[in-house]
Amino acid sequence: MRVLSGIQPSGKLHIGNFFGAMRQHLQLQAEHKCFYFIADYHALTSNPVPDDVAGLTLGVAMDYIALGLDIEKTIFWRQSDVPEVTELTWLLSCVTPMGLLQRCTSYKDKVAQGLSPNHGLFAYPVLQAADILIYRSDLVPVGADQKQHIEVTRDIAIRFNNVYGEIFTVPREHIIESVAIVPGIDGRKMSKSYGNTIEIFEPEASVRKKIMKVVTDSLPVEEPKDPDKCSVFALLKLVASSDELCEWENKYRAGGLGYGQAKKRLAELMIDYFKPYRQKRAELENNMDYVKEVLANGAERAKSVAGETLEKARQAVGLRR
Ligand code: ADP
Ligand code: TRP
């Protein structure tokens, strides 16, 4: 089974990204041939500052490698190193009905959040379809927010195949039934765009400080508390053993628990969870040439698959005979 997924370099990766997506990406490597890439073309749709783009891409690359990406087995590259995908986007665009894109909620959501309503943002799902189809992917592990984009991809693949013959594998989504939504320090969904994140590799002192600031209700200590309504408990769920979690749950319900106590333990557990990877992350930071080499090597492997599929598609539509 060929697995493919992409992640945008739109900021530094946070623990919501890790528990919601990266952890599953890394686990899938044990059983499948995986293709993972950093979606820098997609990131341009939100008009980032040019000086930031390449650096954020390398940051995401270092995070993935430090956290256990298998650089031998998994193909890992920067999207824009394989520009073939943009040519396929054009071929797919010519069979994509406007209505299909007009129904996509992510465009409307992003414009409502204040992003410029540019054509790239509107056509974003077609580029994503090209990503998936050019590498002949079977399975696409994504968060629930990406479900519609995978449906669009399937729709485009089926249309193209109907008109031009069976060129593309029609992929399946693999919705990551993640640990639900990871809350940020303000209690909303943790997201780069809300400025409420805890980055995976930010300094330990800063992780501690942020965890102490996680918003909780103002019930007095002696009052019983509902763990299911508490962001601190939601974060504990990610890193505590089931026995320990059970103890915390009892303490919440019994009353007499101060949130400070739970936050201190949470900070300890969170720091311990990522500790084994910090050393590797720091080494990579001092060895950028190696990181660039991993991406270049991945791009070369990705390019050979992409080139084959693109050539078939060019022939199918009649550009080459
Ligand atoms: P952000 O909201 O920070 O910009 P992205 O939209 O780039 O994050 O998400 C990248 C991946 O991480 C997606 O697969 C998404 O489902 C997952 N993800 C992001 N934030 C969270 C969260 N708070 N909880 C769970 N998963 C998340
Ligand atoms: N749109 C995805 C996100 O924001 C990133 C992405 C781009 C992607 N191309 C992809 C995910 C192809 C899966 C497959 O999370």
Secondary structure elements and pairings:
Blueprint: E1 2-7, H1 15-28, E2 33-38, H2 40-43, H3 50-66, E3 75-78, H4 84-93, H5 98-102, H6 105-112, H7 119-134, E4 139-142, H8 147-164, E5 172-175, H9 204-212, H10 231-239, H11 242-254, H12 259-285, H13 288-317
Parallel strand pairs: 1-2, 2-3, 4-5
The chain binds adenosine-5'-diphosphate and tryptophan.
Tryptophan binds next to β1, α7 and β4.
Overview of the structural elements:
This protein is mostly helical. Helices cover 56% and strands 7% of the residues. β4, α8 (147-164) and β5 (172-175) form a beta-alpha-beta unit. The longest helix is centred in the C-terminal third of the chain and has 30 residues, at 288-317. The mean pLDDT is 96. The chain binds adenosine-5'-diphosphate and tryptophan. Adenosine-5'-diphosphate (ADP) is lined by residues 7-8, 10, 16-17, 20-21, 142-143, 145, 178, 181-182, 189-193.
